Amino acid sequence: MRVTIAGVELRSPVIAASGTFGYGVEFEDILSLDKIGAFVTKGLSAEPMAGNPSPRIIETASGMMNAIGLQNVGVRAFIEEKLPKIRQIRGAVCIANVFGYTVEDCIEVVRALDQADGIAMYELNASCPNTSHGGMVFGTDGMMLYDLVARIRRETQRPIMVKLSPNVTNIGQMARVAQDAGADAVSLVNTFLALSIDIETRKPRIANTTGGLSGPAIKPIAVRMVRETSRAVAIPVVGLGGIVCAEDAVEFMLAGATAVQVGTASYADPRAVEVIATGVRSWCRSHDVERVRDLTGAMLSA
Ligand SMILES: Cc1cc2nc3c(=O)[nH]c(=O)nc-3n(C[C@H](O)[C@H](O)[C@H](O)COP(=O)(O)O)c2cc1C
Fold it and tell me: Where is the Dihydroorotate dehydrogenase catalytic domain (predicted)?
């Protein structure tokens, strides 16, 4: 079941996605963190953030919309309060998700995290649709994305995975920009920019007006984007978007993903990431797949 991303060996290709798994420690009593590949923390910013006003999460057909707005404890509280606990959990692999309104903000987060042990990799969030600066603004402009990744690359020896926005016309091109700027891996997709209106009040159902759509509704688009990306770059691609069962994870791997992440499914079942990791193992056994990595890009043409 082992896969390697940017030199980091994971015992399973199934990873818990950012923003849906707290800081990992909250899940310690719910599932076995040493049975999943890794977990990604909630986006960490230089200063604590309160996020957007409520309502900021709603259910939609086969999915959900959120506009949390990067609520988080801030990088210093993460290092002082969360990371010591994470380091004590045997077998847990922590990927720190990095967010900033500006490149300088992101650099500040990475500099702080670089001083601390217990982080296997950074996931650089260049794709959050729910903030007015940073996030998706970086991930939808090639020049800004290059600048962000290249400057973070100069700051750290740790592997960098760049999380890409699906709100672009050519995701392969954006992935190439990230690769050329020094990214070790890319992850995709973040949420799709969306709008839902309450027809009785005629107001948006989310206080932020727009939000990011996730869950099974986005899966076929995400699978298509993972395929396009894996053909455009040489670095590993981590796929996500609507994975709720082992078969979904296998589909992403066939499309070209080296590993996958599970997000919204954890809201329906907090044990989903472990259940899916175990399920992928069983699926491989029942389909005579000796090594899970043999699935990557093994899709056949029509
Ligand atoms: C409530 C919520 C909060 C999220 N917060 C973050 C975040 O802080 N950083 C990030 O990179 N992605 C964040 N995401 C995006 C997810 O990690 C994931 O990319 C997206 O939801 C698609 O996968 P899914 O359909 O499996 O949820 C968030 C998603 C949700 C639903």
Answer: 2-280
